[in-house]
Amino acid sequence: MDRERIGKYKIVGELGRGTMGEVYKAHDPVLNRFVALKTLPARLGPDDETLQRFHREAQAAALLNHPNIVTVHDFGREQGLLFIAMELLEGIDLREAIDSELLKTIDDKLSVMDGVLAALDYAHAKGVVHRDIKPANIHLGKSRQVKIMDFGLAKISTSEMTQEGIVLGTPNYMSPEQALGDKVDGRTDLFSTGAVLYELLTGHKPFEADTTPSVLFQVVHRQPPPARRWVPDLPGGVVAVVNRALEKDLARRFATAGDMRAALAIARDGLAPARPVPPPLPLPPSASQRLSPPPLPASAAPVTGAPVTIPPPVRSAASTSSTGALGLAARMRLHPLLLGGGLAAALLLAAVTGLWLRRAAPPAPPGPAASTAAATDALTQELVRKQLRLAHAELDDKNYKIAITEAEGVLKLAPGNPDA
User: Fold this and answer.
1) Orientation angle between helical segments 186-202 and 257-269, nearest 10 degrees
2) Is 397 among the catalytic positions?
3) Are the beta carbons of 188 and 177 closer than 8 angstroms?
4) pLDDT value of residue 348
5) Residue tagged active-site, from 121, 132, 150, 189
6) H or E element, residue 396
7) Which residues contact 93 (CB under 8 A, 6 or more apart)?
8) Which residue, among 63, 58, 74, has the nearest Cα to 26 in the 3D structure?
9) CA angle at residue 207 from 201 to 208, to 5 degrees?
10) What are phi and psi of 212, to 5 degrees?
11) What does the pLDDT look like over 294-350, one tens digit per residue?
C-alpha cells in the first residue's frame, strides 16, 4: 500500500524494489535533509537470511564512518517495517559506468579503485570484511566521489552470524576461498577488487561462463586471460597489480588494502609522461674563455693552403674515459687526489648498485606443471566435498530444487560422482 510516512520520515517517492524490500526517497524534517530509506517487513523470522543481511548491514554501518563508504544515519522499526535511513546518493554505479564506457583513461579508472581501496583499508581495520565487492556496489557521485554500498553480506569480526561452509557473494567476483565456503579475511575483498579492476581496464570479466558452477570452477582452478589480450598497451605496473590481487593463494596476494593501494599509486605515477630535461644554462663569457683552449702561437699556426695531417682519435673505452678525465682535470685544475677519489667513489657506487640489483631480483617462478596439476585436483575435490555437503543440507530441509542444482554443479566438476 502507499505510505506517506515511516517514523519521522516523510515519503517523497519510491527509488526501487528488491528481494529485501523497498527503497524510498524520504525527507527528514528534524535535520531537514533527504535520505534513502531502505525497508524490510518485520514479520520475517529471526533465522531468515534476508533479515540477517539487513541486521548485518546496520551493524556494519554502526562501525564505519568514512568518506568512501555510504553513511547510515538511522535504524529502527515502525509500522511493521524495519528501516535503515542512509545518505541519498546521486550519480550512477560502476556497473553503469563500465557498460557506458564513461571512464575513458587509465588514470580515471585507477582513481576509482584508489577510493575503493581507501574504504576497504578503513573497513578492514574496523574488523569488517565486505565480501561482495562488485561494480554494482560501487557508487560514483557527480564529481566521481567513490562510495562503497551494501554491506549486507559483510563479515564482522565480533559477529557469529556466518559460518564456514556457507557460500556467499557474487560468483564472477568471488574469491576461491569464498567459492569453497572457507573462512575469509580482508584479502578476500582484495581478490574481488582485482576482478573489478580487471573488468574496468579490459571491459571483460576475468571469470565468465554460462552457469554458476562453471564460473566457480574457473574462480578456483583457472587463471583469467592475460589483461593484455584485451588491452595490449596496458602498462606493466598496472598488470602486475591486477595479477597479484587475483592470486588463488591468499598468501600470495597483497597483505592489506593499504599495500594494494600503495602499489596502485606507484603504477599510476608511472603513467605520467617524463618531464623534458632542460638544456644546460649558457656559461658567462669569462667562464667560457677560461675553459676554451689557449690560442696557438703564431709560429705554430698552419700555413694557408698547406696540407694538415690530423691523427685519428683513439676509440677504446678505457682511453676515452681516462683522456676525458685528465682533460677535465687539466681544464678545471683539479687536484690529482680529488680526481682519484671521485673515480674510486664512482666505481664503489657502481659495484654496490650491481650487488643490490642482484639481491633485489625476483625469485624464479616456482613449481613444475605436476605440482600445479596436483593443487588443481585437490581444489576440485574440496569444492566437490563442500558442494555435496550443501546439497545434502538442502535435501534434508526438503529444498529439492536447490539440492538438485547443487548436485548438478558437482557433476559438472566430477562427472559420474555416485553421491551426486
Assistant:
1) 30
2) no
3) yes
4) 45
5) 132
6) helix 369-396
7) 135, 136, 137, 138, 139, 140, 149
8) 74
9) 105
10) -60, -45
11) 454 444 444 444 444 444 444 444 333 433 433 433 333 334 433 344 444 444 444
